[in-house]
Amino acid sequence: MAADLSQLVKAYDVRGVVPDQWDESLAELFGAAFARVTGADAIVTGHDMRPSSPGLAAAFARGAAAQGVDVTEIGLCSTDQLYYASGALDLPGAMFTASHNPAQYNGIKMCRAGAAPVGQDTGLTEIRELVERWSESGAPEPAATTGTITRRDTLEDYAAHLRSLVDLTSIRPLKVVVDAGNGMGGHTVPTVFAGLPLDLVPMYFELDGTFPNHEANPLDPANLVDLQKRVREESADLGIAFDGDADRCFVVDAQGDPVSPSAITALVASRELARNGGKGTIIHNLITSWSVPEVVKENGGTPVRTRVGHSFIKAEMAKSGAIFGGEHSAHYYFADFWNADTGMLAALHVLAALGGQEGPLSALVAQYDRYVGSGEINSTVADQADRLLAIREAYGTREDVTLDDLDGLTVSSADWWFNVRPSNTEPLLRLNAEARDEETMTKVRDEVLGIIRA
Questions:
Q1: What pLDDT, in 10s, does the model give residues 164-178?
Q2: Does the keyword Metal-binding apply (predicted)?
Q3: What is the pLDDT of residue 2?
Q4: Is 76 left (phi over 0), alpha (psi -120 to 50) or beta?
């Protein structure tokens, strides 16, 4: 029987429960398929702190080496550290992580040389087809010469590269609480922050893929509670939370109030534009706040709106020569980082901006946080298309709104907008709404939810 990969291979990566949905024998086939599809002579691999990660990564390396490919293993790393290695070494890469998912999950994020994404339309479909075929008919033929497997430590080089992109030498001393959630931030933060004028208060830096303190998913407000409390107790200047593979960062101010990823996107965009002489393209997905394109234009840049998802962002970054991109989910993409996403570099920008002036973070970000947003609200529905049609019919005849279908359905007026888009993997509709004031946002949000949940 061929392995059923329909629930394992997603749009952008491989992700599932170990060993129920996949194991080391399948990981070895993925390694062979990755070698075949990329056609590379050499690749680089890394893994997070989950109990199953070292074994899966080693099996993947064996599969690739059997195809004659030399494998550089960088071992424990964050996802953006793997992207660094792929970019700096100019090699295709594979990162073993399930990001913020619970402990029983694991996955593979793959990229071509220079951290270029591998997704359904850029090689992942072909990889899946090979693994399915081999799982039914037996392992692929090995190459005449087996590739080598060697170890290499890239943590110091990764940290030095990030610090070369943001000048933190002259900032005022800052007290920062960092919640690593027992994820890979506990591995990378001490090295990246070393020597900077920071009083670091670490939380949950012990690498533990069972996540004993809370899920490593800062997008869920429940997982920020410990950080918010500690920031207030320590009278810290700010708090930073990383997800499990430390490629996303979330920020709270001195009062413990979350700073929206849109405000961080606008702040970093203004800094990157300043570094580039007030010129450049900035990518933002269609869920980010109106603030983002406004700030980009005010700082001389050109905003470009895209669909949600890293493959769309990275493709548009490459196509337009953009210098920076941001998403509402706290993924931040940098041209100086091979168009890949790195929460750590975004965090350094926040520290540089805060430390370069005397005011609190809340005052600094106020200029970038101009509207009232609902956040993402998920609703389980029986028929996604039917509910989207009902929304279109409710708003389509109004003269004061415009509709567009870039990603789901976006309805915009002079004072508010909302987007409803279907999940690709679950029977959900996701609503994001924004308005010029709380009362209008609440009215629009509840009106649309009434249609979705009718």
A1: 999 998 999 999 999
A2: yes
A3: 67
A4: beta
What CA–CA distance (Å, rounded) separates 267 from 269?
Answer: 5
CATH code, domain with 196: 3.40.120.10
Measure the CA–CA gap between 174 and 192, rounded to whole angstroms. Answer: 15
**CA atoms of 84 and 17, how far apart (whole Å):** 27
Q: Can you tell me the distance from the alpha carbon of 192 to that of 211, in angstroms, rounded to the nearest whole number?
A: 23
Residue 6 located in a structural domain: no
Q: Give Cα separations from 27 to 137, 140, 317, 422 (angstroms).
A: 16, 13, 31, 30
pLDDT at 1: 61
Average pLDDT over residues 35-46: 98
CA–CA distance, 290 with 443 (Å, rounded to integer): 18
DSSP per residue over 76-88, as a string? E--HHHHHHHHHH
Q: Is-catalytic flag, 329? A: no
| CATH number of 425's domain | 3.30.310.50
CA angle 249, 252, 254 (to 5 degrees): 145
Instruction: Examine residue 408 and state whether it is found in any structural domain, yes or no.
Output: yes
- pLDDT at residue 4, as a whole number: 80
